[in-house]
């Protein structure tokens, strides 16, 4: 068998789709060779891993899980938390790019997406944020279903979290977490980066805390107890010094006769087995040899290919906005206008300062992680330590705390038409505050113990970084097909900073950071900006120019095949409350694309809840 380059194989498959008359409705001859499973799941990210595990708990049902990527299971680069950035633009990344963003000086930014067992949870930054209670309460109000509320989803967080409290945190710190907000018997390990008192990396904790105090950011014992505002100890999907991914948490080591997992298996189309019906029960995929394989589901085909590839797969199958399909020469099976629309993303921005020995000799020397990246004599012993005992500096990612903040109540933006008119635009559950309620943040600041910038590190020196995200953006973008090459990477357009709100919030967050890093606790370390002159007093134009040149387009996208209440207007969304694609049978979507709103924080925890809840809904259908 000749090993075809993947893109060539995909093009061959595409020409086959375009020539195949079955697409427009003819009855296919029954293929005796087609393998049949109860469930065929496409993509082994969060949705795919959780569902494959939970559905195959029932020994009576058979499950096939298809994953486009390599396994990655035995790869240390995936396991070691510290080196996650080495996974970007590696064989475990789709290497996607965004379309040129007009509000970012037309720059073409990379858009990371995991391609391995575990999906993006195998390459991501392991930050675990559950969102404010208001995120879930808004979700419930929109769906008209209280089971989506903060109170309603606690049972799912209990199934997800295996919380590992720090063993010997320095006794001088106030409580680092709220134990009643966590479960210890779920699937995903959650832990803090609370160094033992003997460790050098504690140096950064006092300035992080006192600078916050100095500028009025309150200490929050636990940002994951429903009220994230303030500065809190960050929580990570790390257990025993190792990344805990959707794969390691839900499927690694699970051996069952009724579950089959196939890697290097890229679904290229879903289709009907019988021309007359609306049951999309067949999946065609390309294997590692470029061969097209056809499988069939007796119960459901479940798409869990993520925010980019789920809408792309739907569109390549003729299920999407008619205008996009027609432009790409794909026969329209069903016009579903919301496929690929409503794409929302966080806008991010990193900033870096250098630090040096403190003038006040009672302060600790700043031991930053720059040396781990720049000096093998520092890195290698840490690697040995990690291999030996899963301890040392590679068990963390240079972060320890997270700050969530809000635009003040007296800010001019609240008078802006764009904001004040929101309540009239979106149904009774909408209001003017994009965070929906005052417990919801508008932005996030994460302090890192090393160089943090889109520009590569100078390779020496000691640094501290702050990365910002606008956590409840209002800009809306889209994912569409490349019309001349529909199997090539989709066109991913977050429409970054399209709204006055997003631009205002990012400016506000940056000014807040400039004030924070100008607090005496940081100045004691001779903190010096590594970016062009920008001060708290800089005008909007100067800050905006800085943003256009330095912001990047997030990694938390959702909503490209979003869920809506049963009563929502036709065409406004894609899936029903039971995750079934509206208007067709046998096809469900359980991933970031189905999530109706941008998670107000990082996306992973929200997706675990969505997947666990979907598993309950699907299984309750089996019981009936
Ligand atoms: C670089 C990066 C850093 C991030 N950092 C954080 C963080 O610190 N905290 C946080 O909460 N969130 C973070 N996120 C976001 C979070 O990881 C994602 O939102 C989440 O993993 C998406 O889950 P998903 O199941 O929707 O899709 P994915 O995790 O993307 O999984 C989709 C899977 O489907 C597979 N697939 C796609 N197409 C096909 C096909 N046609 N056939 C077969 N298989 C297919 C893919 O290979 C992949 O394995 C980060 C994301 C990235 C990319
Ligand atoms: C992404 O790009 C890198 C660097 O060019 C390459 O090594 C890797 O194989 C690419 N990833 C995939 C999935 O093709
Ligand atoms: C701790 O968490 C519980 C459960 O979420 C919550 O009810 C309680 O208010 C929290 N306590 C503090 C001090 O935050
Ligand atoms: C702390 O840093 C000093 C100076 O770099 C080093 O000698 C010492 O071993 C470090 N201690 C720990 C616990 O890492
Ligand atoms: C030096 O730092 C210590 C510890 O933070 C503090 O108590 C002391 O006041 C500082 N001294 C000066 C001169 O700033
Ligand atoms: C943590 O990892 C080490 C090294 O692989 C192993 O020996 C130990 O058993 C693990 N501990 C737990 C609690 O899993
Ligand atoms: C908002 O109030 C703060 C103090 O309460 C004040 O410093 C600031 O100038 C006010 N901002 C506006 C835009 O009025
Ligand atoms: C579509 O894909 C082709 C082939 O990869 C590429 O040359 C072209 O630039 C893409 N079009 C767009 C708009 O990205
Ligand atoms: C916002 O997006 C719309 C639709 O793409 C576009 O017409 C408009 O020019 C954009 N405005 C800004 C300020 O980016
Ligand atoms: C730091 O604060 C001082 C006043 O205390 C101010 O003059 C200076 O401009 C500030 N620096 C920055 C970078 O904002």
Structure write-up:
Its cofactor is FAD. The chain contains 17 helices and 24 strands. The two termini are 46 Å apart. The protein is α/β, with parallel strands linked by helices. Residues 42-47, 66-69, 112-115, 119-121, 123-127, 266-267, 304-307, 309, 313, 555-556, 591-592, 602-604, 607 line the site of flavin-adenine dinucleotide.
Jot down its keywords.
single chain; 624 residues; alpha/beta; FAD/NAD(P)-binding domain; Glucose Oxidase, domain 3; 2 domains; seven-stranded mixed sheet; six-stranded antiparallel sheet; 17 helices; 24 strands; binds flavin-adenine dinucleotide; binds 2-acetamido-2-deoxy-beta-D-glucopyranose; secreted; GMC_OxRdtase_N; pyranose dehydrogenase (acceptor)
SSE diagram, text form:
Layout: H1 6-19, E1 35-42, H2 46-56, E2 63-66, H3 76-79, E3 96-97, E4 110-111, H4 133-143, H5 150-160, E5 161-164, E6 188-192, H6 205-214, E7 230-233, E8 235-236, E9 238-239, E10 242-243, H7 246-250, E11 259-262, E12 266-271, E13 282-286, E14 292-303, H8 306-316, E15 319-320, H9 322-328, E16 334-335, E17 347-354, H10 370-374, H11 376-389, E18 399-405, H12 417-420, H13 422-425, E19 443-448, E20 463-470, E21 478-480, E22 491-493, H14 500-517, H15 520-523, E23 528-529, H16 540-550, E24 587-589, H17 604-623
Parallel strand pairs: 1-2, 1-14, 2-11, 5-6, 14-24, 15-16
Antiparallel strand pairs: 3-4, 6-8, 7-18, 9-10, 12-13, 13-14, 17-20, 17-23, 18-19, 19-20, 21-22
Helix pairs in contact: 2-17, 5-17, 14-16
Residues 178, 180-181, 221-222, 225-226 line the site of one 2-acetamido-2-deoxy-beta-D-glucopyranose.
């Amino acid at each position: 068998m000749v090993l075809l380059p993947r893109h060539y194989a995909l093009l061959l498959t595409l020409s086959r789709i375009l020539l195949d008359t079955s697409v427009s409705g003819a009855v296919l001859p029954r293929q005796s060779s087609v393998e049949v499973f109860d469930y065929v799941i496409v993509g082994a990210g969060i949705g795919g891993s959780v569902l494959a595990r939970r559905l195959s708990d029932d020994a009576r049902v058979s499950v096939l899980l298809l994953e486009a990527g390599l396994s990655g299971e035995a790869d240390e680069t995936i396991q070691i938390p510290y080196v996650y950035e080495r996974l970007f633009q590696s064989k475990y990344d789709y290497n996607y790019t965004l379309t040129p963003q007009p509000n970012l000086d037309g720059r073409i930014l990379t858009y990371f997406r995991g391609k391995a067992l575990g999906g993006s949870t195998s390459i991501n930054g392991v930050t675990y944020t559950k969102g404010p209670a208001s995120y879930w309460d808004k979700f419930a109000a929109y769906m008209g279903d209280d089971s989506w509320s903060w109170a309603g989803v606690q049972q799912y967080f209990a199934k997800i979290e295996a919380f590992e409290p720090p063993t010997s945190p320095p006794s001088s710190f106030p409580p680092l977490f709220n134990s009643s907000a966590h479960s210890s018997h779920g699937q995903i390990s959650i832990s803090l980066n609370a160094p033992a008192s003997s460790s050098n990396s504690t140096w950064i904790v006092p300035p992080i805390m006192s600078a916050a105090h100095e500028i009025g950011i309150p200490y929050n014992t636990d940002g994951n107890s429903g009220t994230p505002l303030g500065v809190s100890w960050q929580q990570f999907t790390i257990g025993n010094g190792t990344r805990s991914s959707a794969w390691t948490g839900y499927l690694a080591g699970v051996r069952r006769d009724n579950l089959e997992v196939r890697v290097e298996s890229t679904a290229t189309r879903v289709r009907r087995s019988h021309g007359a019906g609306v049951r999309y029960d067949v999946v065609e995929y390309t294997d590692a040899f470029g061969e097209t394989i056809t499988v069939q589901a007796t119960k459901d085909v479940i798409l869990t290919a993520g925010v980019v590839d789920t809408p792309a797969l739907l569109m390549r199958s003729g299920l999407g906005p008619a205008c996009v399909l027609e432009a790409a020469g794909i026969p329209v099976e069903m016009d579903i206008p919301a496929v690929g629309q409503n794409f929302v993303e966080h806008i991010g921005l990193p900033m870096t300062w250098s630090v040096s020995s403190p003038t006040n000799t009672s302060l600790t020397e700043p031991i930053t992680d720059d040396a781990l990246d720049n000096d093998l004599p520092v890195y290698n012993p840490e690697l040995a330590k990690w291999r030996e005992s899963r301890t040392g500096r590679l068990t963390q990612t240079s972060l320890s705390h997270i700050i969530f903040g809000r635009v003040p109540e007296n800010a001019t933006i609240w008078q802006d038409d764009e904001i004040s008119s929101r309540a009239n635009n979106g149904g009774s559950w909408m209001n003017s505050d994009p965070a929906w309620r005052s417990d919801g943040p508008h932005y996030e600041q994460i302090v890192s113990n090393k160089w943090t910038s889109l520009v590569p590190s100078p390779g020496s020196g000691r640094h501290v970084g702050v990365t910002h995200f606008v956590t409840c953006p209002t800009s809306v973008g889209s994912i569409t097909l490349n019309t001349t090459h529909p199997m090539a990477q989709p066109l991913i357009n977050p429409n970054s900073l399209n709204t006055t709100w997003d631009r205002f919030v990012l400016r506000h967050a940056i000014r807040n950071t400039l004030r924070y890093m100008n607090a005496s606790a940081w100045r004691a370390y001779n903190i010096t900006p590594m970016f062009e002159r920008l001060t708290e007093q800089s005008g909007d134009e100067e800050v905006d120019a800085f943003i256009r040149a330095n912001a990047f387009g997030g990694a938390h996208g959702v909503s490209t095949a979003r869920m809506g209440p049963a009563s929502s207007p036709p065409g406004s969304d894609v899936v029903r409350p039971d995750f079934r694609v509206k208007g067709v049978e046998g096809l469900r979507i359980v991933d970031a694309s189905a999530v109706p709103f941008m998670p107000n924080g990082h996306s992973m925890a929200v997706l675990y809840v969505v997947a666990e809840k979907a598993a309950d809904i699907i299984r309750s259908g089996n019981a009936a």
